[in-house]
Amino acid sequence: MHIEVVTLFPDMVRGAVDFGILGRAAERGLLQVGTEDPRAHTVNAHRTVDDRPYGGGPGMVLKAEPMLCAIRAAHARLPAGSPRICLSAQGELFSAAKARELAALPGFLLIAGRYEGIDERVMALGVDRDLSIGDYVLSGGELPALVVVDAVARLLPGVLGDERSSAEDSFAAGLLDWPHYTRPEVFEGLAVPQVLLSGDHADIRRWRLEQAVGRTWLRRPDLIVKEELTAEAVEALNEFLAARKVGEPVEGR
Ligand code: 9D3
Questions:
Q1: CA 90 / ligand 1 centre spacing (Å)
Q2: Is 30 a pocket residue for ligand 1 (Cβ < 6 Å)?
Q3: How far apart are CA 51 and CA 107, in angstroms?
Q4: How far is the centre of ligand 1, averaged over its atoms, from the C-alpha of 66 (Å)?
Q5: Is the pTM of this model over 0.85?
Q6: Which of 163, 193, 164, 161 is CA-nearest to residue 179?
Q7: In the sheet that 107-112 helps form, which strands lie side by side, from edge to edge?
Q8: For residue 221, what are the domain limits?
Q9: Which CATH number covers residue 242?
Q10: Is the same domain home to 23 and 113?
Q11: Is 130's C-beta closer than 6 angstroms to any atom of ligand 1?
């Protein structure tokens, strides 16, 4: 997978992708992340990348020429047909489904803006689609670009350890995580749930499913509505609710 990022802050992008799971994926040759700085495509002595908005108003706008030159330079390094994606608060909402879609490609280009935005002609000439990561205002597109890189890289074969990429926890797919514990057995008076010490793997699996579906019901009911629960998950949810005496048991399918 080859990803290029057009950014005025290449060090910010490098500083994130050179570490942890992404850094290891790069070392293993599974992921290549390049950057292109629009400032390298300026011609004047001040290396100006921004200018005042036509029509007036506060803030500055990223100039079309250096942005478009950077997009074309980075795009030329990618496999033919790689989509050019702008991170923008006006974009479609990024999601797990979109991450899977991007992970199936050989490469793509991410464009991160700054200031009030990018000259709209760059959108027409150098951008195929727009993505937003959510309804909150950020200072630029770099963190959203890194969110996309991270979410996509985790889906590439071999990037995660075998233990996590396996089907081991797929029974709780689409649900929130279950609670985790490690040593010591009692910490500041709080004990690890007995079932996790029992060594009974069927019981442990069932407890984890109950916790996952129960927490999802309480904290993110929207996910329950969206996801089709398995018969086992419905049973686990009813048991969770009965044990907690929260709400009424729900109808199974
Ligand atoms: C307060 C500034 N806004 C005036 C109407 C517009 C605005 C300009 C630039 C809002 C955000 C930004 C910078 N944000 C991004 O580039 C961005 C972003 C975001 O802010 N939220 C969620 N996803 C994304 S993707 C890129």
A1: 8
A2: no
A3: 31
A4: 20
A5: yes
A6: 193
A7: 32-36, 2-6, 107-112, 84-93, 129-132
A8: 168-253
A9: 1.10.1270.20
A10: yes
A11: no
